[in-house]
Amino acid sequence: MRLLHRPLLASIALLSLAACAPAPIYKPAPDAVAAVPFEVARSPERFANGSVIWGGRVVGVNNLADRSEIEILAYPLDSSQRPKVGDTGNGRFIAVMHGFVEPMAYPDGALVTVAGKLNGSRAGKVGEADYVFPLVNVTQAHAWTAEEMRSGRSNVHFGVGLGVGIR
């Protein structure tokens, strides 16, 4: 009888760990582009008008007369569409938002995820280096809080051996 409980307990444990991760915030569009920003920058015409869900770290906000542009250092996204900052960067892109964007809502270093359509590219510079930035016309944007970035991460760790925790 005891052996029958083990598979059940293991299943419950796995399900509860899986339930910790929040759901994705945006639904991928049918015309979703699987390429990352540096790949799109190489041949933007190939991905014209494709939908993307990209995220990363805000580098800066530039407010213009009719729109705002947020330069973002791209990172891969996790299953909840949060930027994985411990990973390598995927290039940079410019998120184009209609109207005025409050720079305090997207401060330098903030982690964001945006959904939108690719709309070409623009040559620019990163420091003294020439750079091609894919442009994303943003339809939805989310700036992640520290709590949201921590949520869904389990404090349960599996291993073999002896451990001591001090609080």
UniProtKB/TrEMBL annotation:
<keyword id="KW-0449">Lipoprotein</keyword>
<keyword id="KW-0732">Signal</keyword>
<feature type="signal peptide">
    <location>
        <begin position="1"/>
        <end position="21"/>
    </location>
</feature>
<dbReference type="Pfam" id="PF03843">
    <property type="entry name" value="Slp"/>
</dbReference>
<protein>
    <submittedName>
        <fullName>Slp family lipoprotein</fullName>
    </submittedName>
</protein>
<dbReference type="InterPro" id="IPR004658">
    <property type="entry name" value="OMP_Slp"/>
</dbReference>
